[in-house]
Amino acid sequence: MRLAGYLRREALISIGAVTTVLMLIMATNLLARALSLAADGTLPAALVPNLLGFNLVKMLMYVVPVATFIGLMFALGRLNRDSEQTIMRSSGFGLWRITGSLLPLGIPLALLTAWISLFGWPMAEQARDRMVEGAQSDYIGQQVPVGRFIEANEGRLVAYVGASENGGYQRIFLFDRAEDGSIAIESAPSGVMVEEDGQRYIALEDGRRIGGTVGAADWNRLDYERHLMRLPGQTEADGGQVRVRSSGELWASGSPNDHAELFERLSQGIIALVLVLIAIPLAQAPPRSGRYGRLFWAFLIYALYFNVVPLVSDGIEANHYGLAGAVVLAHGGFLLLWGALFWSARGGWGRLRSLWKGRREYA
């Protein structure tokens, strides 16, 4: 039907505009962070575009639900302000038909969000981690920052390289504070980069190491000819293990923490679909309320929904309920809210008041 196509077209234009604005804001923030990492030598500059692309995949699973929700509010709000929805309703094109017309748009967007959160984002994170770890290792091995302090392990390990000449390094200083409180200070006039067991080290030559515990008398000094030292910034060997697990592994795991993470991924697609349903009756404002009369309530509902999911996820981690119970608890209430809004938009409160008034007059 032409009216259904017209509704979908208007909604798609608004959703596309909101998505573009939100993604530009997110991309600007991510680009600034990536450039900051590249400027201080933590990340090779050549990886900035790739890192930006991987992070935008993650942003999509959060942007699509809210952009769809706000975009529908904009589109339906305009139609309501211009009295187009009034004409539609007078022609028999009511809320049920509007919902049926917009679901062919909302369901694919919800499925896209679900695929990104369940499969696309974990794969992108795994690929990003492998790329960054490999590139950082190569970058640090090929270009040791010279003339400034570099640190690792939350400041417990600090290094300084004074100069780089003829493939080696001069005036090397190292400070290492162990978890037990003992410290070691090491200096060497020269050193070279070597590789052992797949890891890169600086081989300090003709250096001195002083170690001990602050406040104690058992300090020692060691002069050596050669000592291998890992440079701050390299990733410890971990057998290629990545930090982000696939959704299949989380499902097969019996750990409540894994099920909580799976619940958060699964919830993104459900949120997108539920917000589409809520937007349709919520946008049915009185004509004089203006185009954006219900946007405050839209933002309030989204903020509430956005915070309910992590709270329910914490309950899964505490083993208060399982995955299925969490889905019902987190999303069932908002489905009830949709039902109440839909009933109200179709004149439910007016019929209820008329019924109550009639009973009082009869009594």
Automatic annotation (TrEMBL):
<dbReference type="GO" id="GO:0055085">
    <property type="term" value="P:transmembrane transport"/>
</dbReference>
<feature type="transmembrane region" description="Helical">
    <location>
        <begin position="319"/>
        <end position="343"/>
    </location>
</feature>
<protein>
    <recommendedName>
        <fullName>Lipopolysaccharide export system permease protein LptF</fullName>
    </recommendedName>
</protein>
<comment type="function">
    <text>Part of the ABC transporter complex LptBFG involved in the translocation of lipopolysaccharide (LPS) from the inner membrane to the outer membrane.</text>
</comment>
<dbReference type="GO" id="GO:0043190">
    <property type="term" value="C:ATP-binding cassette (ABC) transporter complex"/>
</dbReference>
<keyword id="KW-0472">Membrane</keyword>
<dbReference type="GO" id="GO:0015920">
    <property type="term" value="P:lipopolysaccharide transport"/>
</dbReference>
<feature type="transmembrane region" description="Helical">
    <location>
        <begin position="12"/>
        <end position="39"/>
    </location>
</feature>
<feature type="transmembrane region" description="Helical">
    <location>
        <begin position="295"/>
        <end position="313"/>
    </location>
</feature>
<keyword id="KW-1133">Transmembrane helix</keyword>
<keyword id="KW-0812">Transmembrane</keyword>
<feature type="transmembrane region" description="Helical">
    <location>
        <begin position="59"/>
        <end position="77"/>
    </location>
</feature>
<keyword id="KW-1003">Cell membrane</keyword>
<dbReference type="InterPro" id="IPR030922">
    <property type="entry name" value="LptF"/>
</dbReference>
<feature type="transmembrane region" description="Helical">
    <location>
        <begin position="98"/>
        <end position="121"/>
    </location>
</feature>
<comment type="subunit">
    <text>Component of the lipopolysaccharide transport and assembly complex. The LptBFG transporter is composed of two ATP-binding proteins (LptB) and two transmembrane proteins (LptF and LptG).</text>
</comment>
<dbReference type="InterPro" id="IPR005495">
    <property type="entry name" value="LptG/LptF_permease"/>
</dbReference>
<feature type="transmembrane region" description="Helical">
    <location>
        <begin position="266"/>
        <end position="283"/>
    </location>
</feature>
<keyword id="KW-0813">Transport</keyword>
<dbReference type="Pfam" id="PF03739">
    <property type="entry name" value="LptF_LptG"/>
</dbReference>
<comment type="similarity">
    <text>Belongs to the LptF/LptG family.</text>
</comment>
<keyword id="KW-0997">Cell inner membrane</keyword>
